[in-house]
Amino acid sequence: MRYAVVSRGLTIDQLRAEVKKVGAKDIREAKLLGELFCDLDQDQATVLAKVPGLVVKPVKVFQPDQQTLVEAPGVEKLWDVFTLLRSLFTPPLTGTGLTVAVLDSGVRTAHESLKEKVVYEENFTGSPSADDILGHGTQVAFVVAGGLHGAKTAGVAPGAALFNIKVIDDNGFGTEEDIVMGVDRVCELAVQARTQGLYATDPLYPNVINLSLGATDDGDPDNPLRVACRLASIDYGLDVVASAGNDGPKMTTIKVPATDPEVIAVGAIQTYDALEIWEKSSRGPTEEGETKPDFVLWGTDIEAASHLRDDGYVVKSGTSFSAPMLAGLTGLLWETGRRAYGEGWLFRWTAAREFAPYFCVKPADAPLKKGNTYGYGLPAMGTMLGQIAAVASPEQEVMEVVAGMLMMVAMTGMITGVIE
Predict the structure, then answer these.
(1) How confident is the model at residue 320 (pLDDT cuts 50, 70, 90)?
(2) CA dist., res. 116 & res. 148, Å (int)
(3) Residues 6+ apart with CB under 8 A from 43
(4) CATH 3.40.50.200: which residues of the chain?
(5) DSSP per residue over 232-274, as a string?
(6) Which residues pair with 267 in a beta bridge?
(7) 113 with 155: CB under 8 angstroms?
(8) Are 112 and 310 in contact (CB under 8 A)?
(9) Other C-beta atoms lying within 10 Å of the C-beta of residue 156
(10) For residue range 104-114, what is the model confidence (pLDDT) as tens digits?
């Protein structure tokens, strides 16, 4: 049976020595994260679990929330909102400088809206290539950084770069091992970029990990994927953004790894109603009592690139898409700050959460503090960008722009387009 062995203070060399003592086979190491994976029988696992400084866990299977992604009756014009948002600045924002590692089912890199956006790819699954046979990864990548689609620009940050890290196989399953190895590789690439003296805005310098996938909350802080995500955030400076899950409206349905306090968990609100929670969006608290999600963004009737052909598009729903929307928004906020304060200015959602009550909105009847349905709420993007840039325009003008955005979102339900 396949097991994860997680260190509590031991080095990877010590970890390797301990598993070899019990006769472990097929050892695979996530060196930067202090974890390894190996084949053990039950007796070997029992002996190893008694070693101080080790945690031994059976490897679990993760899935993207594909089962709740449903075809919508018409194409929503949500991307017009982001076009408006980017156009508030001169030159328009694009999210350039941001690199998001999409850990998913692969990406159709030849798609017209994703050409030349994937700057690195690697396959950690047993599938033959990093191509997307399932479709989920291509859709997620499009939400982050989709480019030209007909006469318009779609996606949140069309200037962002992407890493295609395939951790979900062609059948829609990803082992905990494959996902952790993918996280470890992104951390390694971040270290390489710093060692080479690359700027944080270099396409080969990863800034955000997007995980639009999950498994049932086990309430275990030593869960191997949670440990990997925590270290990626704390030790390697990467924002880890994860979908909350599509198991609402029941409470305590947030998925791992979004359950971890260090991970940015994103729930979904209805695209046609800016502040109405999507019924299937997972709610907190977590099994450990953590209030989740952290934020909510639009997640229904989202137009995205199809994996079936280079000019194809589909319409989907799920927190799998609200998460990359937040990941892409990182690029717009970061670009705005760099323009105002210089290239050394950084933006991380992990740090921004401290001030979230001041820049998020939620329904009047929702708790003012962070709650288990809306989290802190919907980031008021126009206001955030205006405050970061310290624009000279009157506050009323900024508020009018935000109101206009919300009105556009409310109107999208009346606009119909062409879907595949």
Answers:
(1) very high
(2) 12
(3) none
(4) 62-409
(5) HHHTT--EEEEE--S-TTSSS-PPBTTTSTTSEEEEEE-TTST
(6) 296
(7) yes
(8) yes
(9) 30
(10) 999 999 999 99
Q: How many CA atoms lie within 13 A of 386 on its CB side?
A: 19
CATH entry, 62-409, from 3.40.640.10, 3.40.50.720, 3.40.50.200, 3.10.450.50: 3.40.50.200
pTM of the model: 0.91
- pLDDT at position 79 is 86
Positions of CATH 3.30.70.330 in the chain = 2-59
Bridge partners, 35 (sequence order): 6, 30
Phi, then psi, of 301 in degrees rounded to 5: 55, 50
For residue 149, give the H/E element and its range.
strand 148-149
Kindly indicate whether the domain formed by 2-59 is annotated with CATH number 3.30.70.330.
yes
**Do the beta carbons of residue 210 and residue 140 sit within 8 Å?**
yes
Let me know: does 267 contact 319? Beta carbons within 8 Å: yes
Neighbours of 349 (CB within 10 A): 22
Report DSSP state, residue 412: G
Q: CA torsion angle for 93, 99, 101, 105 (degrees, to 10)?
A: 50
Q: What is the largest CA-CA distance in the chain?
A: 70
Start-end of H helices in 88-219: 136-145, 176-195
Residue 371 and residue 76: Cα distance in Å, rounded? 28
Residue with tokens 């086990």: 218
DSSP string, 122-134: EE-SSSSSSS-SS
Name the band, by pLDDT with cuts 50, 70 and 90, for residue 13: very high
pLDDT band at 3 (very low <50, low <70, confident <90, very high): very high
Locate the DSSP E strands across 251-392: 264-269, 295-298, 302-305, 313-316, 360-361, 378-379
Q: Compute the distance between CA of residue 157 and CA of residue 298 in angstroms, rounded to an integer.
A: 15
Contact 386, 393 (CB under 8 A): yes
Q: What are 41-47's contacts with CB under 8 Å, separation 24+?
A: 41/1, 42/1, 45/1, 45/3, 47/22
Q: Over the stretch 81-132, which tens digit does the pLDDT of each residue have? A: 888 889 888 899 999 999 999 999 999 999 999 999 999 999 999 999 999 9
Please tell me whether residue 113 adopts helix, strand or coil conformation.
coil
Are 85 and 332 in contact, with CB atoms under 8 Å apart?
Answer: yes
